[in-house]
Protein: RNA polymerase sigma factor SigX
Amino acid sequence: MESTHSPGNPFGDFATTQWSLVVAAGNCESENANQALETLCRTYWPPLYAYVRRRVQDSHEAQDLTQAFFERLLEKHYLADANPQRGRFRAFLITAFKHFLSKEWDKSKALKRGGGRPPISLDFESADSQICIEPASGLTAEQLYDKQWAITMLTRVMESLEAEFAAKGQADHFAELKGFILGDHAGATYAEVASRLDMTEAAAKKAGSRLRHRYRERLREEICQTVSGPEEVEDEMRNLLAVLEL
Structure:
């Protein structure tokens, strides 16, 4: 979904794509409400699932609660008062989830997957293999939420970059150079990459520099979609990088 500019938007062309989805999902008369809700669910369910997995021992119960939360967003009008001027989407979502758990936990525990609305297909098995929810990790439920949020954001950025390069017929370039974005290149050198891509080492270094620059651009764009204004971007980026160290 592209960001739009309107005279009533105080941030001009500042991207608020995810907030636009929230507003659409909260508008019961919107024809795109259900589609918006599913988009939000598929994008941001892992951090919420990480949060509730840390709070409950039964993984099936955590799965039921996660699905029930998204399924009831429209039914209970939790998004009706959502407003991008009120703060960051990350904070809004966990606040809404906590409210849901405190008010409807008992009711949701009895909810069986498949009842009510058709359940949204979520890859819980994959999530369980990636999320460290054991108490030994030393992370609180809130810290797990923030860390998984950061991982979700970075994963979305990498996936969008991969698609961008593939569209330009440069999937092999991305595959070879992506390790240099965050320094996770397993000891590979630009000389080795240059040889495999049939280019000079200097050209490979330049391509790696451009990719890192594009990565930072896309990360900023992704963050812009989840905050209420440009003045929050740098702070949110610092927060994102800090929680990855947890």
Summary: Residues 1-16 have pLDDT under 50 and may be disordered. Residues 17-243 form one domain. The chain has ten helices and no strands. The two ends are 32 Å apart (CA to CA).
